[in-house]
Design brief:
It contains six helices and no strands. It is mainly α and about 110 residues long. The protein has a single domain, classed as lambda repressor-like DNA-binding domains (434 Repressor (Amino-terminal Domain), Orthogonal Bundle), CATH 1.10.260.
Length: about 110
């Protein structure tokens, strides 16, 4: 189980969940649909506070990491298990592969 310590902040929770899943910050950014270095910036500069982690960014990261937005942002609620985080990363990887495959398909012209 991931430690639920609100004193560490959202940036530390993101890093801890990412490390449990065994993915780099760059890979998590891609899997969450964020700009390449976004997760790294959040982790390194502590931009995970309420100001820097809201709306679409929060939703994308919490979905990719398999946790609630409240847990990710504020440390509220139960942290996800390591297995849940790994399953969420696997689903995010599958979604990304599917989207890339669909994007590579030639588009048929409408008649």
């Amino acid at each position: 189980m991931i430690e639920n310590n609100d004193k560490t902040g959202a940036a530390a929770r993101i890093a801890a969940l990412r490390e449990v899943a065994g993915v780099s910050a760059r890979a998590l950014s891609r899997l969450a649909g964020l700009a390449q270095g976004h997760v790294g910036l959040i982790e390194k500069r502590g931009m995970g506070g309420v100001r820097g982690l809201e709306g679409p960014t929060l939703a994308k990261l919490s979905r990719a990491l398999g946790c609630s937005p409240d847990y990710l942002r504020e440390g509220k609620g139960e942290p996800p298990t390591a297995e849940a985080v790994k399953r969420a990363i696997a689903r995010a990887t599958a979604r990304r592969k599917k989207a890339r495959a669909e994007a590579a398909q030639p588009r048929s012209e409408a008649a």
